[in-house]
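Chapter summary example.
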Amino acid sequence: MALSRSNWRLTRLQTIAAISSLASALCIAPWVMINCAVGGHAKFQPIATLIGYAGLYAYQHNNDALAKSLLETAVNCHIGDLSDDTGYAYFAHWLAGIEYGQNHYINSERLEQSSASSYEKAFGEYSYSALLGRACVADNLLALGRFREAEDKAKCTLFMMRCVNLHNGDLLKARLQHILSDIYLDLGLYNEAEAIIPETLAIEQKGLGEGNGWTLLSLHNLAVISEAKGQHETAAKQFDELFKLETKYLGAEHRWTAGSKVRFALASEKSNVCIKPEGLEKICAEAVERTNLKTEQVCPNFCGYARSVGRLCLEQGKFAEANRLFNMSYAIARADHGEEHPCTILALQTTGELKLRQGRYAEAESILAETLRLKTKVLGEVNADTAQTMMLLGRTEEELGHGQKACEYYEKAMGINSTTFGWDAPVTQECKSMRTKLLSLGWDRPESEEGRWLMFRLRDRSQQ
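The structure predicted for these 464 residues follows.
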């Protein structure tokens, strides 16, 4: 769970101690480490604590490299000291936050797990510190793609919270519900996410403010759900509002702001929200330039940003640029998460969409068929994201003249979307429209060379 520098400050006493010990900590940290390694933990505990506070001071002032080094020293010095579990837990928690921010999720999860265990031992498993540690573990499991484990951990922690009356319990509840909504969105479970986001957002707006990162992420998730339903005009307005808030609180150059700007442009392209062509062209050019910056490619979820920019290029007819970005997105997602992670599968699907738009239907069919196989395996067949791939395959089969296959894909997608979003949802009606058009042209007839030729003739005649 990424830690916010802006919402956290050392106390005055801790700051004075950190400043006074920072220089000495740099000099004595290696010596302290050597002595702790041979069993002298208790002797150097006060010094190790000062080193830890010096690390927090460095973190507060954006020196992550120094902060990590000092916190590692403090954590290692506390290991083995059975008299002070809380010292280890406290510094391990903050060190885990730095590891998380650097995308080192395995190290972060290990540190959060041990920190939570230490807090449970010191204060009990129902204490705020222990429950917060469990929430952080769930967030790391989510980042690692271990969705079911993350869901179980978050739900179990929420259940434990109902048994006690915690100070600031609402904020911890919101944090856990936010993790759950992220899990559901990654798995294409939009109804489950939509059911908990409004309450989560209300708590975050009241307790953290409209400019807090968690509040902004909840607003982003609501826009993503609107987009998944095919409510592009609503999504465009939501992304526009989010873009304005992020510009105000994070700055125009922040990567979240840049991402919302691209998503707003994409939603606008598919809705009645008007943007002048030169405006879209400018947004697209700026976004493409941003993907060329090497510093951007190490940002968390850069593969998602590259995929969104690629989609915008695709809408603008810039196929070569879209292909580069889709390949980049897929390579990053595959390296970070493996072949069967939802992000990797979605990146693969965008390549299939590109081939479809280019008229390379055989290649599109092969890629989208593999995408459907992976989505069915990872997300399940009755899933909104799986239905999206079925729609794309239906269009591909239609272009190839495979009428029966196209109708079958449209029917399956229509059934899934009507179950998920309702019969009146735009995505459901789109499936119905595509299927009705094919049936009216006789595309439900048995496949044959003569029948295929007739289907093309009928389709061409209907378009004249």
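To summarize the output: DSSP finds 21 helices and no strands in the chain.
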